[in-house]
Fold:
Amino acid sequence: MDSALIPEGVKRCSFGKFIFWIIVVGAVLLWGVFAMLLCWFKGLNQTNMNDAYGFAVWIWADLAVIALGGGAFFTGLLRYIFGKDELKNIINYAVLIGFICYSSALLILAIDIGQPLRGWFIFWHANVHSMLTEVAFCLSCYFAVLTIEYIPLILENRQVDKVPFFHNLSHNMHGIMAIFAATGAFLSFFHQGSLGGVAGVLFGRPFAYREGVFIWPWTFFLFTWSAAACGPCFTIFITWITEKITRKKLVKKNVIMLLAKIAGWMLATYTIAKIIDTWYWAAVTVPSKGFTLMDFYSNNPLYGIWILVLEIVICGVVPSIILITKKGRESSFLLISAVFLGALGACVNRWVMVLQVMAVPVMTFESWPMYFPSWQEIATTILPVAYGIILIMISYRYLPIFPQEREIEQIG
Amino acid sequence: MKVCRRSFLSLIIGGAAGTALSPLPLKLMDDSSIWSQAWPWTPVPEDGEVSHVGSICTLCPGGCGITVRKVNDRAIKIEGMKGHPVNNGGICVLGLSGLQLLYGPTRVKTPLKRVGARGEGRWEKISWDEAIAEVVKKLGGLREKGKSHTVACISGTDRGTVAQLLGRFLTVYGSPNFIRIPSIQDSYELTMHLMQGVQASAGFDVENADFVLSFGSGLIEGWGSPVRMIKANSKWKERGKVVQIESRLSNTAAKADKWVPINPGTEAALALAIANVIIQKSLYNADFVKNYSSGFEEFKQMVLNEFSPDDVSGITGVSASTIESLAKSFAGSSKPLAVCGRGQGETPGSLNEFMAVHTLNALVGNIDKKGGVWTVPDPDYIKWPEVEMDRIAANGMSKARIDGAGSKRYPDTRYLLDRLPNAINSGKEYPVEALFVAGANPVYTIPDSKAVKEAFNKVPFVVSFSSYMDETAVNSDLILPNHVFLERYEDVPTPVGLQKPIIGLSKPVVKPLFNTKHLGDVILLMAKAFGGQIAKAFPWDSYEVCLKETLGNKWDKLINDGFWADSNFRPAVWGGAFHTPSRKFEFVNKGKAESIKIEGDEKAYPLILMPYDSMRLASGFIGDPPFVIKTVEDTVLKGKEIVVEVNPKSARGFREGDQAILSTPKGSVKVRVHHFNGIMPGLVALPRGLGHTAYDEYLADKGVNFNELIGPVEDPVSGLNAAWGIRAKLTRA
Amino acid sequence: MKEQHKNTKAKKYGMVIDLDKCTGCGACMAACMAENNVPFKKDESNKLDSITWMRVYSLTNGKKFPEADMCYIPRPCMHCEAHNGHAPCVSVCPAVATDYNHETGIVSQIYTRCFGCRYCMAACPYHARYFNWWDPVWPDGMEKYLSPNVSPRMRGVVEKCSFCFHRYQLAMNKAYVEGRRELEEDEYQTSCTQACPAGAIIFGDLNNPGHAVNQIAKPDPKHGGRPMNPHAFRLLERLGTNPKVYYLSSREWVRRAGDNYIKDEGKQGNH
Structure:
């Protein structure tokens, strides 16, 4: 039925099956949209946030998806700036995932603010001292960049490509993509960093606060670094899932291996940096404010020292070792476990840097406030996931996302 | 021109692009943000001319001066009146929230007549003429049948012109049953009466005391005139000492210089043991004891024989050495003061305890002295001609009071409201055919709520004069709503506990908002409708005329300053202070100082339930307005559930925040448990002032009314309620 | 405003709260709500969504009966000066909806500018900032007592104690009309200060040696405003927030409860 739109030389499932799944995922999406509208029209009382949890699951989701979307900028950086040409075979998908992640982040931010109609004040009345201002500017700019990176992909659709104007536009855009990739990498460096800065500058919150250089706390660099490490992990992981679902190989192994190796070294160096940061924070920063490390990990029902072990050892040290060793990468099971853990590590880190920051009592006469998101918060957090799946489904079906697909299929 | 698909699409896309590039989106964005900054459903208070009106707050008997800020005809904020002798600028949390009562949803806006069943809340709006005619018809009928004495009136106070008019009306009508809401005032008045032979209030020169020995009084929790007491407490912080004797770490105990935990109910014994030490070590004021007191030798023998520190230590749990050191510091101070009356003083308490504590004041000779207990006569400005009773009235007035006050059993007690429910329910006396309630909310405030409701249901005609839809108003047949305090004139005689007689004047700050009427005017109208001797007793055209005439030359000063203080007042001198038969202070010992036994069996109820008071919980006839209930901590009220305090030692497996059933012989309620190390093991403490069923949705159905869990215990001497607690148990919910 | 103040010295309005005198009566809380048109809901027992610019916390010494002790601590906004006005909340607000006024030392909040990102709440260790999770609703008729001096806030914005800044403005207006540039100490007082029955709250200019707050707290400008009065302390001073609210207590355990200390760390409470 829609065969004219499908890229040449590749097989896709029947249109009926496609629509069926679109409807299934679309239902979840609508549920999220309903929750979103509730939040917009009735206000944030629809959430379980409160004055102790001004930031909660949404901000975590924001930070997490942006970290996971970091695969786009980092792969772009490797391909266009460092000339790792093999990566051209996965860059499209990395860009798509990045596009989904960033658009989701912007959407969630638009729900998360108490006065969405005034959201643009962040640009109009910008406070240059605020990390959030930096986030907003870089995020929006980078989202524009991602859109520009994504457009040529759309233009490559068989039917669209037939229009000479679009064909030429696509061609020209490809020509200048390196500039955008460089800009994107630069912007990403800053907004990933400033997202880290969001927590790191909170000198009223000893759990979050970090020293640093100039205006940037260490978390600024750690966040960028971890996004560069975990983003590619997530790209690999999603590619693997896509391959499982489509039941075919989409990217050649050497490409995956290269990306995994780079991610592994990034993750390893990040983990070392994170360990040093944690040690310095625990040994120097925190005691100077009158706390001990264990003050942050006891006397509450959830946050034990396990979360630190999970973040640094299980999701840092373990996947690093797997990914930097050839044997580890070659084993499909270990590879996928490692990239999963790597991506999870970024999520745990973002969780800790948002929710645990809110939970730790600072005044001596307070106790740990605990929080569980309302269904509206959960639905709106799942909304981008559903949206992402739909966008991937459509893009995969109609666009030549995986340049090697046809080649692999012919071999196969 | 043929419109093809392509040109149509081009038009759409081009149009969209053009619009996007035009200033329109920016304009819309800007407009929407401006709209969000002034949502039509967010009120914008109107500006206008600012003025200030001075008045007196009557939400409690504290009598604070207030200054109300107005913008045009709206009252904006209540603040403490600077320079007022009671509160000098300070104000309490309830007083600050007064405007929420004035403008709040609990107001009764017009006379109402019940149409549904009692308490069902179905009312018919009636006119004032109809309302007054209704009351007069009912009362007239009773009078004709010679049953005028079956009318009773419960009033928040017996002082000031309004209460006096009410009492006067009852007298000429022919009923002896004017009943004042009970409090420690009753016990103090009785103590002064028995020991000093005077009919007067006890005033406390707290500002000048330098050592305050408090037997469980919530000095900073609403005892006496609350703001004044808190101010005095600040003075004590600078120069003075406070010792709090109490089984729970109340705010007063926490702020005191020394907290002496004591087994509850044994305070009288401790006071007498302190007296023992003072006497034994000859630390007492020899001049006072020798020249101005009588019965000392007998008293001395009694305390020396029965109240040695060692013996009392076993009863009270206070060590003998502590007792000795308390006695020494008390008697060794230049202006010591001993006070009693638990918490805010809403339960009259054991007369023996009051007398034992007052004895301490006598021993150190600080009666009518700087920093001591003063005899405060009522301001004597109300000088109306004696009423002339007709035959029916005289006959009615000759009948015994239904509450037993002034009877052979309790000859010296004036009012015994807590005995009323039982008197009605048991039917031993005559039935009550009609009941007036003014400035009081007895359905909520009298202990043993079940019995109170039962008694109310037995009274065929209940009239409430409440301004608010409180529990009593809900359970009445007719509501004749009074103006609220910010809408009316009213004289406010000496606030409770003040050492000097003063008069305050409540003034209308705003014009009455609704179809309400001043209670004083309602009384005058009723009297006029009766005619005869009744009308004759009320020769005034309106309440305002009555008030002006009564206050005479004080009126102008009251209008200008808001208060009138008797500048000539001096405390009595010992030579002429006492009006007992001996003309001396009497060391009276009516009965032994045994502690009051509380209700309940120890085996079935291993714990003791005690109430506690807080400035943030209004537990009198006014309930917490929204601001005040907002200040209540979550260790007191959580959602709709009341939280009780238990020492972790006696929590028996109940963890912090657990639900439990709290049972006493009077009833069972659902509570949440809060572990509190400041409470003596074996006790459960429950806050007073919650558990309202009436008022608005900001207050109703939150927590539990303590009075549902306790009944009155009669003091053997005074007949007043002396229950300080009740046996209780906690079981799994 | 800056121009007009050229001839006057910068003020640093602050508070001293005597915890020995504070009885926990709650008057300051209600005084604040009444003055500043603070809304209320049907259930305010969840203190995590209950707007109380001034909140009275209670603390205990953690000991068992009968050694247990308790103290109340009123917590307005601390109006942190931090370093050069970079209060924790001010520096993070992305839209300059909250600002540090160098003329008065007051941290402002512009409700119509705030778009409700709540970053400032995450930054404030004192929980002095409150979000309007709901539309403010006054029962029918009760909106009559709302003061025109303070605008009621709309849903979705953050609000907090302003040291009754509108009173400062009114006092300054009056002073200008009378040809003065400086305010007397009693001309500008916050609502809670005036109401406190215990006289436990004192308010004034910390920079002015004639003002009681300066005399009592004795802030040491060389050490970031640290009090020189040994009974005085500030909340969470160690975080570098440099708050302008000082507390007094004669009890050491109370002073120590003002900040976090590692076990056995310097026993004196005010460092």
In short: Chain B touches chain C through 77 residues (CB under 8 Å). The first helix of chain B runs from residue 5 to 21. The longest strand of chain B covers residues 667-675.
